[in-house]
Amino acid sequence: MPQRANVARLRSSAPVILPSLLLCDFGNLEREVRRLEEAGVEGLHLDVMDGCFVPNLTYGMPIVQAIRRLTDMPLDVHLMIVDPEQYVGQFSEAGADVITFHVEAVKNPRSLLERIRDLGAGAGLAMSPETELSRIDGCLDLCDLILAMSVAPGFGKQKFDEIALDKLRRLKQIVGDDVMLEVDGGVNKTTIERCAEAGAGYFVVGSAIFGKEDYGPVVRELTQLAGRR
Ligand code: DX5
Ligand code: ZN
Is 47 a known active-site residue? Predict the structure, then answer.
């Protein structure tokens, strides 16, 4: 499935629950992907961490490639790395459909957003909780997705930070439905409705899904709470 078609698929499917592949069983990746597909999941969120931008280290292109071979679902790749400009080409090659980098990690977000689009992928821009919305001024026209983090990037299982809700509300007023608005961190059945009301259409969920015996019921419950009729 070419990247643009997968970006269009994501855009037309809101609200979408995107399981974050950070707390999954990496020793049984194929089984995890099949279980998520059977649970009705419509995309995957891949958390790439380099141990520099965030104090944690996860995986890179080989795992993205492996997951690309396992499924044609849209892959939403969240780069929590320094120098993302060095790697967006390789992540696009590896099969990422949306490539999201942190505005805090670059000097010129506009040029990297353009580069990601030129590669054929959807261009995403992420803000950590403490980053002011004004930091992404002048970039919105080049974003396919904007990610308002509701936890400090680097780890799952953290407490939801409501600061993301203000950003989502203001972003929704500015971009309407033109840009996919995503929230990531501490999203679960007690926080997801407020995220949807604030304007998010894309919900990254880690610990609220993984560790459950059966992914189906929790994915269905979160999808309904997110506003899927
Ligand atoms: C944190 C990651 C998130 C995280 C979500 O840096 O970007 O995607 O894994 O996990 P939960 O849902 O447990 O907060
Ligand atoms: Zn993430």
Answer: yes
Residue 211, pLDDT above cutoff 90: no
pLDDT tens-place string over residues 154-187: 999 999 999 999 999 999 999 999 999 999 999 9
Q: Are 199 and 181 in contact (CB under 8 A)?
A: yes
- Asked if residue 75 lies in contact with residue 107, where contact means CB atoms within 8 angstroms, the answer is no
| Ligand 1 atom nearest to 210, measured from its CA | 13
Walk me through the domains of the chain, giving residue ranges and CATH numbers.
Answer: 2-225 (3.20.20.70)
Q: Are 91 and 77 in contact (CB under 8 A)?
A: yes
Pocket (CB within 6 angstroms of ligand 1): 20, 22, 45, 47, 78, 80, 151, 153-158, 184-187, 204-208
Tell me how far apart the alpha carbons of residues 140 and 124 are, in angstroms, rounded to a whole number: 10
